[in-house]
Amino acid sequence: MRSDNRLPGWAAALIGLVTGAVAVGVSLLAAGPVKASAFPVVAVGDAAVDLAPAGLKDFAIRTFGENDKPVLLAGILAVMAVLAVAVGVFAARDLRYGLAGLAAFGAVGVAAVLTRPGAGPADVIPTVAGVAAGAIALRVLLRRASAARPDDARPEETGPPVMRAGRDRYAVNRRGLLTGVLGGAAVAGVSGLAGRALSSRSEVSAARAGLVLPRPAVPAEPIPAGADLRIRGLTPFVTPSRDFYRVDTAIVVPQVDPRDWTLRIGGMVDRPVELTLADLLKRPLVEADVTLCCVSNPVGGPYAGNARWLGARLADVLRDAGVRSGADMLLSTSADGWTCGTPLDVVLDGREALLAVAMNGEALPVDHGFPVRQVVPGLYGYVSATKWVTEIKVTRFDRDTAYWTTRGWAEKGPVKTQSRIDLPRDGARVPPGRTVIAGVAWAQHRGVDAVEVRIDGGPWRRARLAEAPTADTWRQWVVDDWDAVRGRHTIEVRATDATGRPQTARRAPVTPDGATGLHTVTVTVA
Ligand SMILES: Nc1nc2c(c(=O)[nH]1)N[C@H]1C(S)=C(S)[C@@H](COP(=O)(O)O)O[C@H]1N2
Ligand SMILES: [Mo]
């Protein structure tokens, strides 16, 4: 199989790239009807997220924000492109080397796919199909491109004329290569697009659209008119679902069919139960306004949002199962295997800890945990807000650990009091005169009692607080009597919670249990 007609490097590289593209396209097509996590590129990405050191998540969020996943996927594709070029170059020497390289690719893909939670044997099909298609493409492309040198041309060969590269050593059948490359690119493109279409025309979004939500047995009070100061540029009191921040480890979010969904509750309980969605919707549903925030939110950062949730009380569901004494933690697991440890006493203390089915009057968006997620006021998301939740084990902190706590984050994650300046923006230029300073502050479940602002290190001045329906949401605040004079000015904010504790000015990083410090912006008045 050794070829005497060495292809020029560029041709071998091109063949490798097209081979890789065919493999990726065909595996995406094969994964379409299976599931996203069986697409090896995504599986490798998911595995990389899980294996990455804790500091890297933090770095990724800080650097790329909510684009961290597209950036990771682009990185993986770039690495694959380099490896594909290598496959092409080796295959040009000897097809067997190229095939061995493809097989190694496939082995990594199969390993990644099989280590995904809930993976079954059928999940390797997309990888195997992709590698097989890649192998065929590699063979065909090499055949088409390799031109027989005139001295060893066999008589029956009647193909297009042999083009010889400048240096005599290399020969390439350019037309054969070109048509092969175009054909390969077409196969890759069509199968990739078809695969994407298959997976996005998902039954889950149709089922979500068809879900009929019961009326709340315990409706929330209407949001007071004074909760939203309606100042342009100020974060609205209710975050529209499409603008709600998203933080999770899923590269492609789990598609959970509500008809198959169940929630198993076991561990230290008297009566393990398994609820269907219909069971859950039969329970009295409670509506609650709750502000969620992420422990990875830097001071002044965007990872907080406020929504009206509808769900069953988690405490009632647990009481039905009969929690045994000695338990102090709920270990919840999502459909994609992510886990979360929530302090049991917090869930049972009477606050509106929910198994939520709706957000802002609609079934949960798939990105935010459809069909069911946890919402617990007063705890950071990583210890409370399990999306796509499928299992809750009643257990103990000294027996079980969860996804982030095994990666250096604190076991318990009570939300720290925070305040943020939305207006004026950091670095803004504003004209002299009356200038509005406004933002939001949160101390979920304790409530915000005061917000103060200080300019250029001067005296603290009280901000006017907007109303808040409960202690579980953030509060808007405004200072509207600042007479800004020309020059550069620094504005700081601090909140005091309803227990009377002012927010600490001491700066702490997000790890291990949430950032502290005062949000500070600098503006130029000119
Ligand atoms: N299944 C699952 N649920 C999860 C996470 C996750 O990675 N996987 N991340 C948690 C974290 S860290 C936060 S801050 C919240 C964010 O919820 P949101 O994406 O709806 O804003 O979800 C929590 N629930
Ligand atoms: Mo988070």
What this model shows, in words?
44% of the residues are buried. The chain has 3 domains: 9-199, no CATH class; 225-407, Oxidoreductase, molybdopterin-binding domain (Sulfite Oxidase, Chain A, domain 2, Alpha-Beta Complex), CATH 3.90.420.10; 418-525, Sandwich (Immunoglobulin-like). The strands form 5 sheets. A 5-stranded mixed β-sheet has the order 4-3-12-7-8. Strands 5, 6, 9, 10 and 11 form a 5-stranded antiparallel β-sheet that branches. A 5-stranded mixed β-sheet has the order 14-21-20-16-17, with no helix packed on it. The N and C termini lie far apart (75 Å). The longest helix has 27 residues, at 174-200. The chain has helices at residues 9-31, 40-51, 54-64, 68-93, 95-114, 125-145, 174-200, 203-210, 277-282, 314-321, 344-348; strands spanning 163-164, 171-172, 262-267, 273-276, 285-293, 304-313, 329-334, 339-343, 354-359, 362-363, 373-375, 389-395, 418-423, 429-430, 433-442, 448-455, 461-462, 464-465, 475-484, 487-497, 520-525. Helix content is 32%, strand content 23%. The radius of gyration is 29 Å and the shape is globular. The chain is of the alpha+beta class and 526 residues long. Strand 7 (329-334) and strand 8 (339-343) form a beta hairpin. Residues 244-249, 292, 294, 334, 336, 338, 368, 381-382, 385-388 line the site of the ligand Nc1nc2c(c(=O)[nH]1)N[C@H]1C(S)=C(S)[C@@H](COP(=O)(O)O)O[C@H]1N2. The chain crosses the membrane at residues 7-31, 71-92, 99-118, 124-142, 177-198. Keywords: Membrane, Transmembrane, Transmembrane helix. One of its GO terms (biological process) is sulfur compound metabolic process.
